[in-house]
Design a protein that fits this description.
With 133 residues, chain A is of the alpha+beta class. Chain A has four helices and seven strands; from the N terminus they run βαβββββααβα. Chain A is 19% helix and 23% strand. In chain B, 63% of the residues are buried. Classes of the chains: A alpha+beta (133), B alpha+beta (605). Strand 2 of chain A pairs antiparallel with strand 13 of chain B, so a sheet runs across the interface.
Chain lengths: 133, 605
Amino acid sequence: MKEIRVDFDKCTGCRHCETACSLQHIEDSVNPNLSRIRVYIDMEKDIHIPILAGPYTDAKCTSRYPIIMGGKEYENCILCRAACPAREIFFEPGTEIPLKCDLCGEPPDPACVKWCIHGALTLVELEEDKEDS
Amino acid sequence: MYGWMGKILRVDLTEHSYEIEDLDEDLARDYIGGRGLATKILYDEIDPAIDAFDPDNKLIFATGPLTGTGAVGSSRFVVVTKSPLGNIGNGNAGGYFGPEMKYAGYDIIIFEGKSSEPIYLWIDDDQIEFRPADDLWGKTVHETEDQIKSLLEIEDPWKRKRIHIASIGPAGENLVKVAAIIVDKHNAAARGGIGAVMGSKNLKAVAIRGSKSIPIADPKGFREAVNAVMDKAKVSPFATQAFPINGSAGILHIYNEVGMLATRNYQTGVFEGAENIDGSMITKGYLIRNRACFSCPMACGGITQVKEGPFKGRAERPDFETVWVFGADCGNDNLEAILKANKGMDTISVGNIIAAAMEMYEKGYITDKDVGFSLKFGDAEAMVKLVEMTAYRKGFGDVIAEGGYHMTHKYGHPELFVGVKKLENPAYDPRACQGIGLNLATAARGACHNKGYTMISEILADAVKIFPKYDPFVTEGKAQLTKGLQDETCIFDNAGICLFLLVTLWTKEVLQQLEPATGAGYTMESIRLAGERTWNIERLFNLKAGLTGKDDNLPKRLLEEPLPEGPGKGHVNKLHEMLPEYYQLRGWDKDGVPTQEKLKELGLD
């Protein structure tokens, strides 16, 4: 199985992945609000974080503790991939249908990976699968 | 319509009311959008001769049909207005504000009239609110953005981050004629004093958020076109390495080597401290991380930090022009001072005026009594202090705030003003590169390199490999080169694509993406014509504003004083060898007025 690996440090915040995803899924138009990948940009903390839409959850979580990675502190809610009632992302505006990444696009690369010029997004084989084969 | 949202938001600041109008489809197609379309609207709706701060002047924010679509480099929106300098004013900016205008449903926002008290506008799709800005007045752009985001009381962190803001700082409020409009804290629509026009309308900021979709005519064709252009960008050393790593200032050493890095108010074209201020030195010592505008592979922006000392602070990574002006032009090789001076105004103009003041000081035309302190070339501390004083019109800053033309005339030395149509010159010394002189002399907003960047052929042709190569020292063929680049640059500005991408792609690639996005039937010929139409409507605006062919000129220094050293030693710019041919190619008469035939050809009669 394959997954999209995200390298925060390589992300420049251009959000090209958002337009790539929305063009792939909604066909006749572009709208980052309908994208299954969104980039969180905080210029004060110097972070650009692409987040891929994960599973839907029908309840808000209670674990709002911060997460520390590479010496930087991240809000839990920013790193979470769920379509969750606490926030607007990963729901289609209007219909409120939850959105989820489906590794779309023309093989070998998903649409977002293809337009990510600086390599923040890469498609990789899951580690456990490699060991099996 | 596809690509365009098809709507204009017309805001009456006097009455605090607004209307949403349909975009004229034919007009949009004829001008593509952005700079050209906004200029046409301004030309039709105001008397170009009015004062910039007259409430009848209008301030127009305009996107292009590619803005926000994901086309490569599609971050741009442009601000068009009558400039306080007396001619057409325009400046465009990247970041994310332009795309968000489209998602909110508007191609264009027109601000009319003048609010009786400071306000900011909150646009959330179709919901538009006029909010008091009394508490924001006097605040910097950074403070303004933070405060607006907290005033809007949005808890969801993702939602909050999706609000994009265009605002002015104290310089705009104080009607400083070099004031910029800043978007997303770090991107500037800067030249021609457009921030002062926003200030004159008591409009502190515009905050916007949108949830709408931009319709695309041929989605599959558009995706394939963007794929193809991205493939080109992926193999371009400029897009993948030079600009993302060292920013646009990474090419500073090149311009020094060819002897056209204007130094000490254009007294020479070679700066002995150039290697200390090159973009690579910023990356080495101060860059925290790089940063891209919307849909851009180049990531020439970034965040820099000076950790200690008198110039301590965080700022946007300065672009080439900013490094040049606070570096070479002010005779300063203290990089930390350059990072500190990069604040919220038209850096080219502020720095250029300070450089002229430094020359006046060294020649004894102004003294400590005028300035309040000594002001020699290379005095980093004085330079940084003056930038701050200009924004607040404090002391000598009040003189700088009126512009270089005004300052040099005030003290009786207009020969020290290096500018065209009252707008201060950028970095490139046209004595060592003939074509750029013609462009600087003829650009409608004044001395602007980004209206026809002839260096792409005269200096960078071998490195970029897209444009034909020209010898920088000859005048032959330069009229044609300049006209072509000027018209084609309009295509970028009108479509919503960042001109910096010219090191990677050109109009063929814009068309490749523009046609599937809009389905408007564009061809190379029709977009070139749209570019030429844009150039001519700006010309008509300037003529009605009272400018004439005599304003297509360069400062005396560049025409008469030969460069004293470097590869350009002994050369001057031979503008008057090129100008008559240029007028002829443009279809303008000998006074620089478009002929009836030309206007008819462009549908402007």
